[in-house]
Amino acid sequence: MAKLYFKDKPIIGLDISQTGMKVMSVDAKKWLVTGYGSVDLDPAKIQASLGSEDEMYLEQNLKELLSGNLVGSLPSNHAVISVPTARTFTRTFSLPTEAEKTLNDAIALEIEQYIPLPMETLYVDYEIIDRDKESLTISMSAVPRLLVDRCVAISQNAGLVPVAVEPGINAVARLLELTEEGHLPTVIIDIGPAGTDIAILDRSIKVSGSTTIGSNTFTLEIAKRLKVPLENAHQLKVLNGLNPGPRQQKLKAALLPSLERILAETKKVIRYYNERLASKHKLEQVLIVGGGSNLPGIGEFFTDGLVMPARVASPWLRLNFDGLPEPAKQFRARYSTVAGLSLVDSEEVWK
Predict the structure, then answer these.
(1) How confident is the model at residue 277 (pLDDT cuts 50, 70, 90)?
(2) Candidate from 1-5, 112-116, 311-315 with smallest mean pLDDT
(3) Torsions phi, psi of 247, nearest 5?
(4) CATH number, span 89-143
(5) Do domains 3-87+145-180+316-350 and 89-143 have the same CATH topology?
(6) What CATH architecture applies to the domain 3-87+145-180+316-350?
(7) Which pLDDT band holds residue 5 (cuts at 50, 70, 90)?
(8) For residue 129, how many other CB atoms are within 10 A of its CB?
(9) Do residues 205 and 125 touch, judged by C-beta distance below 8 A?
(10) pTM check: above 0.85
(11) Distances (CA, A) of 275 to 94, 206, 236, 280
(12) CA-closest candidate to residue 80, choices 145, 152, 141, 164
């Protein structure tokens, strides 16, 4: 759609994840939240709905969310949508300068070598983000066409006008750039309920990775190891975690295998950044976000494991709810992605 015929409106965020949906609107000039809402859904039904236009589960729940489950109100129906990062591919790589003449062929070769899906099934976007006399640095993102098309159709069927689609980790990065010294070369660890996304933010997302370990995994492992109900396991997770206490030994034994798997994936992403990009920028911080970031002691775990300062991000200190009831403290981290989506500048959409 040409911008000539398109009327700009405030942008809202729509986060479609593996476990639910969230919407939010933020007036970026004032950092003022005008409306938000969320709904937790059945992961198996989400996957079915994302995979088939005959499954209307997400459409129905999005309509209900927009019509009856909002805190505050949304200023428009123009939405930037996030798709699950684990279903996307983001890579940054270098090529000789002379390769610019045949850049499409070089991109196709990169996809063939590193992405386990045929190019014709993907939407691919790329740009040259740096160049010198000898080399070009290319940033590339690829997303399955079916996934994007379904997310767009779901939002349209619920009355929204989608104006952009991006991986969830890109939205998180936008929020952190604006609130957490994200101008520094940063490792992002986004621990959601069903999985963890990892990315390197160095002026843009340079590379990303994912693992199926999430905060729900922590709860299940505690319940199994300590032989307690899931509700009790959740309480032990958020109140005790890795901190010293009478049950520390058993809690650490339950949590460490999952945390070690996230750490291993994080080291793999860091290794790609350091070796494949031969970056002159040293990574300076680790920021932990998402619902799983509320695990006590998690910052110290990643500080020790990566030998780099790691901390839980607190972008909420910047957001102003101005009289709206705020999400409960234990749920705020879940809104990181959708807050980042709602902060998209309209110029980003049209550039």
Answers:
(1) confident
(2) 1-5
(3) -110, 15
(4) 3.30.1490.300
(5) no
(6) 2-Layer Sandwich (3.30)
(7) very low
(8) 14
(9) no
(10) yes
(11) 11, 12, 39, 11
(12) 164
What size, in residues, is the chain?
351
- Going by the DSSP 8-state scheme, the letter that residue 31 receives in this structure is T
Structure tokens at 274: 């350091």
Residue whose token pair is 């069927």: 157
Q: How far apart are CA 242 and CA 266, in angstroms?
A: 19
For the chain, what are the domain ranges?
Answer: 3-87+145-180+316-350, 89-143, 209-311
Q: What percent of the chain has pLDDT over 90?
A: 62
Asked if CATH classification 3.30.420.40 holds for the domain at 209-311, the reply, yes or no, is: yes
Q: Counting beta carbons within 10 angstroms of the beta carbon of residue 168, is it exposed (0 to 12), middle (13 to 18) or buried (19 or more)?
A: buried
249: tokens are 């030994």
Q: Are strands 186-191 and 196-201 parallel, antiparallel or unpaired?
A: antiparallel
Surface-to-core class of residue 212, CB atoms within 10 Å of its CB (0-12 exposed, 13-18 middle, 19+ buried): exposed
Q: Which residue has the tokens 């403290």?
A: 329
What's the maximum distance between 2 C-alpha atoms anywhere in the chain?
Answer: 65
Scored b (16 or more CB within 10 A) or e, 323-349 reads eeeebeeeebbbbbbbbbbbbbebeee
Measured CA to CA, the distance from residue 258 to residue 260 in angstroms comes to 5
Express each pLDDT in 67-105 by its tens digit: 988 999 999 999 999 999 989 988 888 888 988 889 889
- Given a contact cutoff of 8 angstroms between Cβ atoms, the answer to whether 198 and 259 are in contact is no
Note the pLDDT tens digit of each residue in 172-181.
999 999 888 8
